[in-house]
Design brief:
Blueprint (H helix, E strand, L loop, with lengths): L4 E6 L4 E10 L2 E7 L13 H12 L9 E6 L2 E10 L2 E8 L12 H9 L4 H5 L10 E8 L7 E5 L7 E6 H25 L6 H4 L30 H8 L9 E2 L1 E5 L8 E5 L1 H9 L4 E8 L1 H8 L24 E2 L3
Parallel strand pairs: 3-4, 8-10, 11-13
Antiparallel strand pairs: 1-2, 1-14, 2-3, 4-5, 5-6, 6-7, 7-8, 9-13, 11-12
Length: 331
């Protein structure tokens, strides 16, 4: 690595980090270092936005996926890559699976000494113990206005046999609500024929729309719009999930089985209905869901799609000069 440069990634809060910029063959690389001198929130608490700010300063002509990235927070380290679709970063891959926390940050001097050490950066920084790396994982950022950093983060549970699919939020939720409404119609009609009315179980499928409202009546001609918070205030959905917006602590994805031949409905949630509905209620264009069963049919019916992002220009060699944006630090 070459020398560290100090870069502000959040001008409003005067948050900064250390960056080492290199060129690996045809691809540029940005090594991100969390610094103890930064008294504002560390980059890992707004990871996507922070990395995008660094990209804009160093390589504004490139997509996030055209840059190699590493992230070091003290003794925690991860290789990072981004996947983009329809103009949005839809997936963050972490080969190290550890973004650390606020207490992991080290002073600039530690990093500078490690860069200059003949024993190597990792050996010097960790006193020979090696980085905390963990395994390989993925985080799915979802743009949602009004939550911290305007982003929700989902992380797959990685259950065996399940595939993570980005679903079109409104299309998927509309289909599931119609499926359940049809199910309720049949069962409500049967109960009414028996003279018993809707069962407690069916009424329990309806969420409370507001704190001061009774449980929604499953009369389909009356309050079906209250189903799963869809007529509740956006503020309630935001309050339900706002703490789960950090890439350090992402929400686990919902998971379900999809079987078009199931007479009770093709979509069978195993866990996570409310996480899906709350995110959709806040305007999420897509949501990461883990699926087993007929995954190909599920993709064909619900996978989120948009116009492919335009091809970015060819990488310039050498990379553009950036002295206007950062201050070089001598080792």
């Amino acid at each position: 690595m070459t020398g560290i440069q100090i870069v502000t990634f959040d001008k409003e809060n005067e948050a900064f980090c250390g960056v080492v910029a290199e060129q690996h063959g045809a691809r540029p690389c940005l090594h991100i270092l969390e610094l103890a001198e930064n008294k504002a929130a560390p980059l890992n608490e707004s990871f996507l936005q922070g990395c995008q700010a660094l990209r804009d300063q160093f390589f504004p002509h490139l997509g996030m996926n055209q840059i190699d990235w590493t992230y070091t927070n003290g003794i925690c380290h991860s290789d990072v890559s981004f996947e983009e679709h329809a103009g949005a970063v839809t997936k963050i891959n972490l080969n190290g699976n550890h973004l650390g926390g606020r207490n992991f940050k080290l002073p600039q001097k530690f990093y500078n000494d490690a860069l200059a050490s003949p024993d190597g950066f990792e050996h010097e920084l960790t006193s020979g113990h090696g980085f905390i790396r963990g395994g390989v994982s993925a985080i799915y950022p979802v743009p949602v206005a009004g939550v911290p950093n305007n982003t929700l983060y989902f992380k797959p549970n990685q259950y065996e046999g399940m595939i993570t699919v980005l679903v079109d939020a409104q299309k998927f939720v509309a289909a599931w609500r119609e499926q359940e409404a049809s199910h309720i119609r049949k069962h409500t009609a049967a109960k009414e024929q028996e003279g018993r009315g809707p069962s407690r179980m069916l009424r329990g499928l309806f969420a409370r729309a507001h704190d001061n409202m009774p449980e929604a009546d499953p009369d389909l001609d009356g309050r079906i719009h209250d189903f799963k918070l869809f007529d509740s205030s956006v503020a309630r959905s935001r309050d339900a999930i706002w703490k789960n917006t950090s890439p350090e602590h992402p929400m686990p994805t919902a998971f379900l089985n999809f079987d078009p031949a199931n007479p009770h409905g093709a979509i069978a949630f195993l866990n996570g209905r409310h996480r899906v509905f709350n995110a959709a209620n806040l305007g999420a264009p897509y949501i990461a869901i883990e699926v087993d069963g007929d995954v190909d049919a599920f993709r064909q019916k619900f996978e989120w799609s948009g116009p492919e992002i335009q091809n970015a220009p060819e990488i310039q060699t050498p990379p553009p000069q950036i002295e206007r944006h950062v201050v070089a630090i001598a080792r």
